[in-house]
Amino acid sequence: MQVSKLLISLLFFIVLIAGCSKDSPLQPPPPDAKLSTLSGIQSNVFTPSCAVSGCHAGASPAASLNLTTGSSYSQLVNQTSLKDATKERVEPNNSANSVLVLILRGNISPRMPYGAAALSSATIDSIAKWIDDGALNN
């Protein structure tokens, strides 16, 4: 009798585990919703990581790209890249061809933010989504 209860419990446990393993794969959490707008990207990425002294701020920003609040949109969207004159820094609806995403992913050197840890894939994906959604000045 004890063996039967043990076998039934074991069988139940195996069925429970098998049912969860393939049909319900773990999914990464969705990208941070704060990064779906330019203002969210500005406050969470550009201001703390890019628009700092010696980088993309001040009188002579790196690559002539000022990423401070109020300047980043006009400096990025529909602007020809100095890195690759065949591409725009941000081409609305086309993150795959936007230098901002390429340089954040490390496809164009140097990877940004320069001299710091790379942004997470989720953060870069959120920026790409903002671009693919039209790169609105929101």
Brief description of this entry?
The protein is 41% helix and 0% strand.
Structure description:
This protein has one domain. The chain is 41% helix and 0% strand. It has helices spanning 2-21, 38-50, 72-76, 99-105, 121-132.
Estimated share of beta-strand residues = under 5%
Low-confidence spans: pLDDT under 50, at least 5 residues?
A: 3-31
Radius of gyration: 23 Å
The SSE string, one letter per element, is HHHHH
Task: Determine the fraction of residues in helical runs and give it as a percent range.
Answer: 40-55%
| Tally of alpha and pi helices | 5
Question: What is the 3D form?
Answer: globular
Query: Structural class, please?
Result: mainly alpha
Main sheet properties: none
Number of domains: 1
**Count of DSSP E strands?**
0
**Cα end-to-end separation:** 68 Å
Can you give the mean pLDDT?
82
Write the layout of secondary structure elements.
Layout: H1 2-21, H2 38-50, H3 72-76, H4 99-105, H5 121-132
Key words describing this protein structure:
5 helices; mainly alpha; disordered N terminus
